[in-house]
Amino acid sequence: MDTRKLKYFLAVVDHDGFNRAAEHLLIAQPSLSQTIASLEKELGVPLFHRIGRRAVLSEAGKELVGPARLVMRDLDAAQSAVQALRGIRSGRLDIITMPSPGIEPLTSMIAEFTSLHPSVRLNVSAAFTPEEVIDSVRSGSTEIGLAGSPTPIRVPGVEVLELERQPLILIVNPQADTFPAGRKAIQREDLGGHRIIASQRGSLMRWLVDDALAHGVKVEIVVEVAHRTSILPLVLAGVGHAVMPSSWAPTAHKAGLRTLLIEPVHHLDVAVLSRKENLTPAAKAFLGVAARHTENQQQ
User: Fold this and answer.
1) What is the pLDDT of residues 113-169, one digit of tens each?
2) What percentage of the chain carries pLDDT values higher than 70?
3) How far is CA 227 from the centre of its chain?
């Protein structure tokens, strides 16, 4: 089995079929099909079920995806290590992040990283749960992951660097700002009678709203939003207030919105995740940026 066959196999997986994979690889579709057929013959099992024009992973194919990604990632690491000795700093770094850490601290860390390593291209993909981030890093789909959790993240076999703790804040709807002027914080009970734009269930922000409701605080959830990029525009449009981590505060302030700390304070613990070994030089350099961020937060 050679790495070219694994590369072609992953292309079919990532591009949902042979035609798009062939276009991505810049090869003829029959050539791609022949390569996959050769790989299946070597392994002795079908990797895809052909259903019409679709290619659906078989059970054996599903089992191969993770190891294949690790092989390709390790190959990239070997190539990058050799290139680094020659002073070449190009390459690509794959990162996965949850929405709030993707605003901060990821923005600041990317700004520092790209200034130090301008030839490295970053590819940032999205996740909505810590489990998605962990699975992506473990499988080798990405090298670096940023996750936020109500408690510190502990994962066997994965390197975890705690970055910061983000308190939950209220981003105030300017059309319904009845909170006293000059105040920097409110009690959770002060949310009573207000309309709230809520994140999806499973997030710490949604938990705070649901817990307030369970304790008799008359909060009205007016919109439930999965795509958090919609939240600030909805607040600006006067739809409601929003409970978010403090990473959103600078952007909210630039938009002219007021923020208030919610007491008692609940924190989103933000960490960067990576494999323990065989990282590319670009990933190691990014972890160096993350370590400096942590040191600055502790000063």
Assistant:
1) 999 888 888 999 999 899 999 998 988 889 999 999 999 998 888 999 999 999 999
2) 95
3) 13
Nearest CA-CA partner of 140 in 70, 76, 211, 89: 70
CA distance to 91, 94, 286, per residue, from 122 (Å)? 9, 6, 11
Residue with the bigger pLDDT between 88 and 217: it is 217
Dihedral of CA 12/135/60/6: which sign?
positive
Total residue length of the chain = 299
Residue 86 has pLDDT above 60, yes or no: no
What is d(CA 18, CA 213) in angstroms, rounded to the nearest whole number? 50
Residue 260 CA to residue 162 CA, distance in Å, equals 25
Other CB atoms within a 10 A radius of the CB of residue 107 amount to 13
Model confidence at 20: pLDDT above 70? yes
CA distance 258 to 176: 11
CA 153 from chain center: how many Å?
A: 15
Average pLDDT, rounded, for the chain = 90
